[in-house]
Design goal:
Number of helices: 7
Order of helices and strands: EHEEHEHHEHHEEEEEEEEHEE
Structural class: alpha+beta
Mean pLDDT: 82
Largest sheet: 5 strands, antiparallel
Low-confidence stretches: 90-97
Shape: rod-shaped
Strand order of the largest sheet: 11-9-13-15-14
Strand content: 35-45%
Number of strands: 15
Oligomer: single chain
Length: about 280
Amino acid sequence: MIGCVEFTVESLSAHRAADKLSRAGIEVLSAVRTQKNAVDLRIRAKDCKKAFAILRGSCYNIKNVRSRGALKAFALAVRSAGLLVGAMLFLGGVLFAEHRVLAVEYVGNGAYLAREAEEVLARAGVKRFSPMPRDTGALTAELLTLPRVEFCAVRRRGGVLTVELVCADGSVPLGSLPLTAPASGVIEELVVVRGTAVKGVGDAVSAGETVVSAVSSDGAPVLVIARVKVSFPVAREYGLEEREALLQAHLDFGENAKLHTEKTERGWLVAGTAYAEAAVNLG
């Protein structure tokens, strides 16, 4: 029943309490005689104040007042409000933790590359309290470019992101060497994961010149992880047929060289642009 109150009436004439309330226009929903001088009555909550006034004015004792139906549920909810709020906050905290990065754990013999791996994660927007990465494929691919890393796995469990790095010859320390230009020419591409770039794309360099320094801006040594591609002009005359001259030029200058041919008195002149690449701790 919705919005009801149940109570016990005690009196020598307790059995007449229900009739008294009915004559006063109060609907009695149920009446159960529990003892010789006691009756349990149930009425609507809205009639409570009037009913109690009538009964007490007629010398009836009222005991054990209790709510029933929706009124009871509401009263219980009010009494349990603090508990409910706490439970909701706890549940919300659990759901938040399940989908947020609370900690990053590095395992495997490549865990010494944690600092470099942190930079990879940071570039992907993965940091403390950030959303858990949905697709770890891109992260894994970039982590595999770290020096000597042969296997990488990124796992999510609760709020912990575990990065496993397995390296070849992990017991041998990495050298702190600068990246130098492999040839004299112009820098076409430059990838710097760690280190201080002293040259940029489009700059002219000489063979052996430092492109990425192994010293940070504050003078501290830093592990260089970088790669550079330099372009330079080439030209050579071959006393061969055009096809053979072009094939030999690619052998001499590299398969990725961009070449063209020009007929000469002694054969063919092959000229164009060749490329040289160098890397430090980056495959």
